[in-house]
């Protein structure tokens, strides 16, 4: 009888013990990613970094289990890349020599829109949860931790301007999203105001221009993405107008086109406050149409559109002037710093929020956001948190305004540490390297940036502002989460990116690319390489420029992850030279030669500059032309040659990758004549 | 009161004694034989009546022997003809459970589980109807066909839909040879051993395949083996697509056709000491799972190669039973299970695997460990059912921190006291918990989903005293408390997420008889 209880209860006791043991590994005992240590980045100088831009979905598929809805043959769909894939390829990236990874957005997106998928990550649906196509929080943290272990930084691409296509404007009130409204016509402001004899006086000149120029495209009204209406998208039927159009969020769970869910309890968002599922958090004015300061539009009208209009594709514009909206966005991205230990943010569409070029002392959203990000980083012990914005515009003053601080009643405030240098992309990378414009453009743009030689007639005549176009003082010290460097010193240089055709797609060959790469890695600022450049990818406009890295480059005969091809080696060697020479990273810039004349001549395509650091000095002589040129004026122009600051008799040796090892002896007064083969460069330093 | 036995009585007693103890050539005093006690008048009368009756039967036999032509000739079996016997013929069996009640919020009652196998105190209605027919072949082999149809919980009186979709859970033929010592079968079969009743869970050997098998018992050892396959209508194993027909139009072809092969073998050693003593068995079990390679097409028609995969299982069971004389009707047992699987075998064969490594394989990274126990103890006061298991699952994906991975366990005990007649009163107490090694997708926090439940009940089980006697009618109230982690498993917009307490009040009925799967 004594054994009976043993027979029945022994398993229970054993199981309870097993359960208790299992409980030792309980999930609640897991260290949350937000609680893991953060790297400090103390001592970091962002000028030392080489950024490598990764579109996560296209880089490497490291975990097939998150291949949800992949269609690898369709450029506009998910292909399967993920954060595990990046982890798996850190060896490759380390071999290339890049030091900072810029990864595409990580937040949960609407799944698809008009047949396209959100593989790029820019269609936010939920600001607080990771995109399951790429992994989970632990995987993201594993990525940053693994990168940090190799001395690499990780920059997150964030979007605060808009969300995905979460709602439509129910213009005709039928409760369904119409692609083409019956009886569609001009934008309602045009019909109701400008072309209405009784109210025409209310129509501004810009609106009248808009209505007159836009007759063709305004003929069609799409409730997903109606064109901009300064008074807000209006409800309308063939019988007339009915006031502001009703906003209807879609409820399509299968494609994750549902209203953003309320935040989890730990976020601490008050229950009585609205959230991103509230229409009042959006500007609701319709789609930006006028992108550039074109024709007869006033600057204000264009900027009104850009800053309050929806982003094309029905991406709904958030009203960041709403304090609640701004607070929610700010707290959301503070969270991402904490949970994933990012080292910086690349911020999308910054020119679509605030107008610092018009209102420099209005703190606006960016004044708040950038300060809070730095403070958050500092609170986590992170120094040198790098914030650079994407202002997709060739207007150097406009994009530079986002790097300048301001002063308001609360005191001084900052903005971005840097911007993606689009003005350089258009005026130098394309105009000079691809189209043979004079290299004087490079000098002018630099002078504008720092405010040097403001009276240069050639520069003025070619539309370069006197400057300084970009911020000249640091926004915050390193210990305060800033980078301790002036924006002028850390602009992010690039040849191409995910929004532009790849450099090699048009008007360029390998030689052109070679010359541009020399510039990228020797010029002042932070070089940024778009993934696949080192594999000679040559895709056209989006989405063709978002190739699958793991497929290699069959057109060139490059196997996947080939580290032996000439393109890879050129990038790798240039990075190595940059790392080896402090002057190339942190040195001051003195332009020593630039051509003002296009076409064939002795110095065609020559652009020479010295970079001087405390204990290093390098002379770079670029030749952007398709001919061998040298750093001297044509004889007909006097034949003067470049004057360097090196002492006479100094022998300069070419350190450039692939160089013939040529040496050049500095002559009297520092004169030096340097012949550079076509579309190449010499990186000269004393022997 | 004592009278000397008559000669007739003495003869009768001698016959009884002889028939009970005497053996040919054995003239020794039978063990335990005693000197007849003096008989009473009543005894004598009874013995005389019995003797008279025997004399009548003897006379009848003698008459029959004297008139052989009047007796029916015994039939001579035709070569190849079958002979019906008690084991042969039609047999109808069934397992069923039906649940009726409310969640006390006006809704349909729902089971609550955060583990792979939750307590069954509230589970969906289910019905099996089994039809078997057995034939005895010359030479003694018994041939039995078994068809079991099963219905889910789409009950007409619940949905109003005049519709049901039965599944064929068994569809096989079996040959029983050597008086049951050897069995051969082929067909579609749920093929399994012992369960943990309180979880409706067969933790060691629960296979569902189309195949064949054999078992043989020699002395105390029984060995069994089976091999089978399935091809689930899942994109992992099966895919059809339309292609251009040779002449015109479209024709449908099978693009992906992967059968999962499952082979199992077991050996059981029995220690059979009789019903009043402790009996035991030790069972060793092994499985081999295999899945061939194949190619399926994604939505964009690009091919995706699925590589060959396989898996293994090793398991063991210790079973104890007995300690209850058969006349009591008590059924006392305890089973301990242990099972370790790797690769494909870590996934139920009726579900496609998930959580692959980078080459879309599960072997060898995926693994499952199960430790389980089930027991029942019947006694005069009632009975107590006990169940519990612990399970650790790790998939093959490269994620170290993964909510799919981790331990879980569940325990359940159901003591029932006999109130009188066939009525029992008791309670079902259960606890289940998971320890996922990752974050909850909805909250982005780590949590251990858990549920504790208490279910007082009355059970009417008139056919016997055992916890395993059926049919059984139950009146049950179940209150389950879901922890925050359990609530977080629901989708954000799932109304259930608002209810930490989940109730059930209602009636249940459960039966099994003549079932090949439930005894």
Model description:
The complex is a heterodimer of chains A (687) and B (519). Chain A has 687 residues and is an alpha/beta fold. Among the domains of chain A are: 167-249 and 283-306, no CATH class; 583-687, Sandwich (Immunoglobulin-like), CATH 2.60.40. Chain A contains 16 helices and 26 strands. In chain A, β17, α14 and β18 form a beta-alpha-beta unit. Chain A is globular, with a radius of gyration of 28 Å. The termini of chain A are far apart. Chain B has an 18-stranded antiparallel β-barrel. In chain B, strands 8-9 form a two-stranded antiparallel ribbon. In chain B, strands 12-13 form a two-stranded antiparallel sheet. With 519 residues, chain B is mostly beta strands. The longest helix of chain B is centred in the first third of the chain and has 26 residues, at 41-66. At the A-B interface, α1, β6 and α4 of A face β16, β17, β18 and β19 of B.
Number of strands of chain A: 26
Q: What is the CATH-assigned architecture of the largest domain in chain B?
A: Beta Barrel
Shape of chain B: globular
Class from secondary-structure proportions of chain A = alpha/beta
Class derived from helix and strand content of chain B: mainly beta
Q: How many angstroms does the end-to-end distance of chain B come to?
A: 54 Å
β-strand percent of chain B reads over 45%
Which strand order spans the largest sheet of chain A, edge to edge or round the barrel?
16-13-12-7-2-1-18-17
Order of helices and strands of chain B: HHEEEHEEEEEEEEEEEEEEEEEEHE
The count of strands of chain B amounts to 22
Q: Would you state the CATH class of the largest domain in chain B?
A: Mainly Beta
**Average pLDDT, all residues of chain B:** 87
